[in-house]
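Anyone have tokens for Heat-inducible transcription repressor HrcA? Sequence:
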Amino acid sequence: MLSERQKMILWAVIDDYILSAEPVGSRTVSKKEGIHFSAATVRNVMADLEEMGFLEQPHTSAGRVPSQKGYRFYVDHLLKPYMWSKKDLMALHDYYVTRMDHVEQAIKHTNSILSQLTNYMTFILGPKISESKLKHLQIVPLNDRTAVSILVTDTGHVYQQHITVPEGVSLSEIERLTNFLRFRLTGSPISKLKQIVVKELADELQRHVDHFEKLTDLLDQILQAQPDERLYTSGTTKILEQPEFRDVDKMKSLLDFLENDDEIISLLQTSSEGVQVRIGYENHLEAVRDCSIISASYMINGEPVGTIGVLGPTRMDYGRVIGIIQLLAKDFSRRLDSFFENGD
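Reply: yep, here.
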């Protein structure tokens, strides 16, 4: 366990490095407010912290930088409550007063304001479609041969696609089919809709609609497998502006990662509640070994259904980002609950 002096100096080094992105020397630390030790004393303590693995010394500099072990200790033991700035409060005021009429708009706006507040790349991972249930089904004819099917899940996902209407099928038949499916399938798991229709409803459908054989193709289009995840990102270029990624190889590796939604999703999935902080090598992909991810679950009806979070360098302002994510995750959950209470 670190002594109080070691904790104070480790905090001072990390706090300065987060702001400057430059190795921190003992003289700089000794001049910080609240540090009442001489530069020589600070230098000795920093040497001890380096030997213990909390600091590192780049070979080109006499100053020290935090190690990932140092950041981990800082996050777990040294963070102070985040004090909101006037600029942050003004941005949050804009967030609260902005009208959001549907779930996807709320997701995009929340993502955007999170990126604006943190100045890092942000993401919202939507609910798993496979774990959702059908809340609403609608088929909107566009003309005699095309229509749009709209599926709405109980976790806020809206999926729509253009479908081809079989020749000879009337609009009234489509309406009867829609009413039947809506009545019988609402509340059923999205992943089992097709199975239910084929195994349980086929005979009943034949009695309720004309041209059943022609409508089977329409059903296939409506009930085809839906994407399992929805990933929304904002501020992707912000992380590339950080000094850590001036290295071409690091930048290329990170860019390749950011272009692969499946890899991002695999990294962000979590069943844990509350704020999660993964630093550097705690992330299992090589491309983000110089990054930290701070994330939190958001809820619908008290159940965690998706993830909201930030991707930045290990030299990120952890206290600030954690404070912002805690607030936005709670408010985003309240907004989603309000949408579903109002039937949106």
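Residues 318-341 form the longest helix (24 residues).
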